[in-house]
TrEMBL record:
Keywords: DNA-binding, Transcription, Transcription regulation. The lineage of its organism: Bacteria, Pseudomonadati, Campylobacterota, Epsilonproteobacteria, Campylobacterales. PROSITE patterns: HTH_ARAC_FAMILY_2. This is AraC family transcriptional regulator. Signal peptide: none annotated. Pfam families: HTH_18 (PF12833). It comes from Halarcobacter ebronensis.
Length: 297
């Protein structure tokens, strides 16, 4: 997951002073000024993003692929990995980024459909909608550079205006993908989502995706369908793959960290450490503490 700090480093912009502010973070950019590539890598971000795309672009998010031939408004949230490819090399448009805490006392931004994992993220714009979107982004740019004491309120209102503008429009249609390629893509996306949760570096970090339903929800497919695809492409069930990766991480933490067993249990998504101990012993034949002792001899 790309953090805000890594984002600013990637676009070669100095970190703003308020990046870790309690009231959250918001910023706006012109795409041509800061993006010198025609492809955005497939990844999750630690922030929300709304992008006005101009030109011909192919966008990938979750297991969907959609295309915009002229103008589009793209919504990105931290849970869903995405990427895009410019098909004509154009880098025009705007984008704004903000953290969930920027809306903390003003409602839950995740409640809007455009920021829910299984909803549409790309909306095609006609000329009139393009003018309205550009006007909103220009207002954002004006306010963020102003000294007005309550400019954050205006920036929230402008962000909500973009959200409501999109929700009134028809989303872009998903591009056709050959069934065989789609299965491989879903399998790859599943593994990408799984691996991006690791390594766990701090005891208070937790797995966000712990069971097959969590993954199928993000991939916008039925859990049974995901299971059939993974069984066909990997010869393992969804639960077996998840359990195997959690077990690998548990062994690493037991061997190379000084965390207590209950801290490891919590970070791996177990509310009750007894369940984690049973899970580990069933697969390794030792309790976590016994395994740690044997590995560190």
């Amino acid at each position: 997951m790309e953090s805000l700090e890594e984002f600013y480093q990637r676009i070669s912009v100095a970190l703003p002073q308020n990046i870790n502010s309690d009231i959250g973070h918001f910023n706006i950019f012109k795409r041509g000024d800061h993006l010198n590539c025609s492809t955005l890598p497939y990844s999750r971000k630690d922030y929300f993003k709304i992008t006005l795309l101009k030109g011909k672009n192919r966008i990938h998010y979750a297991q969907k692929t959609v295309q915009s031939d002229k103008y589009a408004l793209m919504f990105s949230d931290p849970l869903v990995p995405y990427s895009w490819d410019s098909l004509d090399g154009k880098k025009d448009g705007y984008f704004c980024i903000f953290t969930e805490s920027f809306f903390h006392y003003f409602g839950k931004v995740r409640d809007y459909p455009v920021f829910k994992p299984n909803q549409n993220k790309l909306f095609l714009l006609d000329e009139d909608s393009l003018i309205r979107c550009e006007k909103i982004f220009l207002e954002m740019e004006k306010e963020i550079n102003s000294d007005y004491e309550y400019k954050d309120d205006l920036l929230r209102n402008l962000t909500l205006e973009l959200i409501h503008l999109a929700m009134r429009m028809e989303p872009a249609k998903e591009s056709y993908i050959e069934p065989k390629n789609k299965k491989n893509k879903i399998s790859t996306l599943f593994n990408d989502l799984l691996e991006r949760q690791f390594p766990i570096n701090l005891p208070y970090e937790r797995l966000e995706l712990k069971n097959p339903n969590d993954y199928s929800r993000l991939l916008d497919i039925h859990t049974n369908h995901l299971n059939r695809i993974l069984k066909e492409t990997t010869s393992k069930t969804t639960s077996e793959i998840i359990a195997s990766r959690i077990l690998d991480e548990a062994k690493i933490l037991l061997k190379h960290s000084s965390w207590k067993v209950n801290e490891i249990s919590y970070s791996l998504g177990y509310e009750d450490s007894a369940h984690f101990i049973n899970f580990f012993k069933k697969r390794v034949n030792y309790t976590p503490q016994k395994y740690r002792t044997l590995e560190n001899v």
